[in-house]
Amino acid sequence: MLIIAERINASRKTIAQAISAADRTFIQGEAKAQTLAGAHYIDVNAGTFIGEEAEKLKWIVEAVQEVTDLPLSIDSPDPEVIRAMLPLMKKAPVINSITLEPSRIEGILPLVTEYRTKVIALCQAEHEMAETADDKVRIAGRLIETLTAAGVPLDDIYIDPLVYPLSTNPQSAGATLEAIGGIMKRFPGVHTVCGLTNVSYGLPARKLINRAFLAAAITMGLDSAIIDPTDKHLYAMLKAVTLVVGKDDFCMDYICAFREGRVE
Amino acid sequence: MLIIAERINASRKTIAQAISAADRTFIQGEAKAQTLAGAHYIDVNAGTFIGEEAEKLKWIVEAVQEVTDLPLSIDSPDPEVIRAMLPLMKKAPVINSITLEPSRIEGILPLVTEYRTKVIALCQAEHEMAETADDKVRIAGRLIETLTAAGVPLDDIYIDPLVYPLSTNPQSAGATLEAIGGIMKRFPGVHTVCGLTNVSYGLPARKLINRAFLAAAITMGLDSAIIDPTDKHLYAMLKAVTLVVGKDDFCMDYICAFREGRVE
Question: What ipTM was reported for this prediction?
Fold first, then answer.
């Protein structure tokens, strides 16, 4: 299970404040905590700093790379911002994210192939938010076709079928889960990835819902997730579900996590 | 999600002691607590009292029916014990359980049809503990064929694909999960049911594993479970997973559980 750590995102108040105040120690603390907690990539996002996104993200990238050896997930919809970050990378990053929208294909795909990065591809087309499982699988197919035709290996593609709030549509998460199963079955070798926070928007006890959704998604074949690995209950559930679905040989990963005090 | 409450089982020390001491108040307390916690059936088991099972189970049945209006799940492999309980039932019970073993088919099936009860059917044949998903689905098919041929409606059949300890075979739970998906897809209208405790045997933080397995099983289509509904974390996860898989219209069941203080 690949973990992309989500905390360094300017949409979070404390992160936005730290960026505004150029509080390097705070950002570095977040990077270190997530590294220690078992992240494989550190996501970096300065999207709320409109007009200053590239400048702020560069500052974050430099701060984070000083304290962790992990590769980064460059989280921006803007090809120019991504282009400005790529030469700064100490390790091959993941670009988060591309869609089927022509401006993003034209702007971002050449960067993926030039820098041979991994890429998160959202199930979103120009005039379409895919809402049903069939729509999501169909758009995933078009994304995979477009990316592989440009030379991106299947193993570098992380399809995000997207999940919308259950409070708006109680079937939305079910469609995403079915899509994960469909994508993993129909396109063997590709990866699936998902963020969790949308799913519980507007409902009480959100972290419980996020945890339940992660458990269900892993059951359907999800092999990477954009999560907060410092969330102890979420991390414990991730390890336990990975175990029950048969992806933890000899139960070793679970038992190690237990010995480290990471499960209950 | 149908909940069969598992606590009144003589394999639990406190229950065995209460049975031995004829502590009616204790047994009735367990029945009331599980009823309040949202059970749909109260399982009753006196299996460890060899030679006295019928007598002890009769005492339990009478005690429990004094304090709850819920129907019971008569938990015994012995046709004679089940036969002795059936006339005592105030509501149509579920018989737990039948298998393909000839002695159980011959002894128990006539009781199911005579008393028109629901029945839990274990994926277990005479010389075979089904371990792979394919074996479980195949045996489920034979059980369904046998039961429906005798006139048992599909809606009264609860197939238990059985789960074995992960500590013995890390693939065992995955096989059960795959079987649940296969059975629900291949035999529409039938129910699946499962106990959880076996899966975590021999591993640390067992309740976390049980919770993860329940979440995964509901994701695969499980629509009933033999659980302890007074386990708050387990119950909360059950409600949250039922929500994310799209089986909670308008999120009402989840929101009600939240208002009752049952989720986190």
Answer: 0.95
Residue of A nearest to B263 (CA): A205
Tens digit of each residue's pLDDT (9 = 90 or more) over B164-188: 999 999 999 999 999 999 999 999 9
CATH number at residue A172: 3.20.20.20
Candidates B168, B244, B253: best to mutate against A (most CBs of A within 10 A) is B244
Is the separation of the CB atoms in A102 and A142 below 8 Å? Answer: no
Number of domains chain A contains:
2
Residue holding tokens 């409109």?
A50
- pLDDT value at A129 more than 90: no
Q: Where are the beta strands (DSSP E) in B13-122?
A: 41-44, 72-75, 94-98, 118-122
pLDDT digits (tens, 9 = 90+) for B125-151: 888 889 999 999 999 999 999 999 999
Same domain, A188 and A135: yes
A131 shares contact with chain B (CB less than 8 Å) = no
pTM: 0.97
- Domain span holding position A202: 2-228
No. of helices (H) and no. of strands (E), chain B: 10, 10
Contact B177 A213 (CB under 8 A): no
Residues A74 and A171 reside in one and the same domain: yes
Together in a domain, B199 and B222 = yes
CB atoms A208 and B170 under 8 Å: no
